[in-house]
Amino acid sequence: MEALYPYVLIVHLCCAIIFLGFIFTDVVLFSAVRKKLGDEVTNKMFRIIAQRGVKIMPLCLILLVITGGMMLSSYINSDVGYFTSNLQKILWLKVLLAGIILLMVIISLSCKFFKIHNPLANIIHPVALFLGFGIVLCAKLAFYL
User: Fold this and answer.
1) Which residues contact 49 (CB under 8 A, 6 or more apart)?
2) Which of 34, 61, 68, 89 could form a disulfide with 42 if both were Cys (CB 3.0 to 4.6 A apart)?
3) Beta-bridge mates of residue 77
4) Can you give the residue range of the structural domain that contains 69?
5) What is the pLDDT of residues 124-134, one digit of tens each?
6) Looking at the 3D structure of the chain, how many domains does it have?
């Protein structure tokens, strides 16, 4: 794993940028566009972007989970322990935050698949953006505390 780590890290970071960038665009930028241009134009723009996003986001999320798990195994395992250092504790917090995002995505996709009302529809992107920034902060803090 040590030899693959830099490549796994690059894939992980690229996917995280794409994932959070898409959500940031929806939450922050489209809210400003909505105020200036109205719902009709904004919804039309978002539908166009979402058509591409629906193809890219699942792959990004899967790669984020896989590469995150691969990197996590370097710092948390039976040889080095699970909760013995501050690094490990912060990484577990990262896993928890990422797990919440993943759970929300699974619930949303299940609702879409079963054609039922999605109770998370109005909050998933703002919550995912907030949790995503929390994950980024944890990633930076983990190696300094």
Assistant:
1) 25
2) 34
3) 81
4) 5-141
5) 999 999 999 99
6) 1
